[in-house]
Amino acid sequence: MKRRTRGFTLLELLVAIAIFAVVGVMAYGGLNTVIKQSAIVQDQTEQLAQMQAGLRQMRSDLTFSIDRAARDALGGEVPEFAGGGMNLLTLTRLGAANPWDAAQSQLMLVRWRLEQGNLERAQFIPVDGAIGNSAADPDWQILLRGVQKINLVFFDMNNQAMSDWPPINEPSAGLPKAIEVQISLKNMPPLRMTVAPVADWPLPAPVTPPPPANTVDNEVGGRAP
Question: DSSP for the chain?
Answer without folding.
Answer: -PPPPP---HHHHHHHHHHHHHHHHHHHHHHHHHHHHHHHHHHHHHHHHHHHHHHHHHHHHHHTB-S--EE-TTSPEEPSEEEETTEEEEEEEE----TT--S--SEEEEEEEEETTEEEEEEESSSTTSSSTTSPPP--EEEE-SEEEEEEEEE-TT--EESSBS-TT-TT--S-SEEEEEEEETTS--EEEEE--GGGSPPPPPPPPPPPTT---GGGT----
